[in-house]
Amino acid sequence: MVTEILKGHNRTRKRVLVNGKMMDIGKEKLIWMYTKRREIRLFGERIADLYRWGLFPSLAYVYVGQRAVATCVCICVREDDYLLGVHRGHAHNIARGVPIDKLAVEIPAKP
Asked: Which of 27, 32, 94, 103 is most buried, taking the most CB atoms under 10 A from its CB?
């Protein structure tokens, strides 16, 4: 992925190469991406804490260091696209807007 920062007219935007063409990402999307990455990080850190404290019966996989993958994927998909995460898919779900409390309830139930 090739990125470049463009500045002008008192606005900052980022251009990203997606599927062979440059795509502009405006300030609102950049803020959305930062917010989602932050939510994913806090969720993962909290799940890891709960596991260390012995509150989960099984290992909880977190998405440390990979948050940009989920946010970049979800910025490119349309609302009606399907997204299937098979391993550590919680980050993609958070980026797609699934409520965090519903994801948190699902994790301890895994065998």
From this structure: 94
For residue 43, how many other CB atoms are within 10 A of its CB? 21
Only one residue has tokens 């919680």, namely 90
pTM of this prediction?
A: 0.72
| Distance, CA of 44 to CA of 50 (rounded, Å) | 10
Element (H, E) at 13: strand 11-18
Q: What is the mean pLDDT of residues 82-95?
A: 80
Which sequence spans correspond to the domains of the chain?
A: 34-109
3-state secondary structure 33-79: HHHHHHHHHHHHHHHHHHHHCCCCCCCCCCCCCCHHHHHHHHHHCCC
Instruction: Judge whether 61 and 71 are in contact, CB under 8 Å.
Output: no
Give the tokens for residue 102: 């519903």
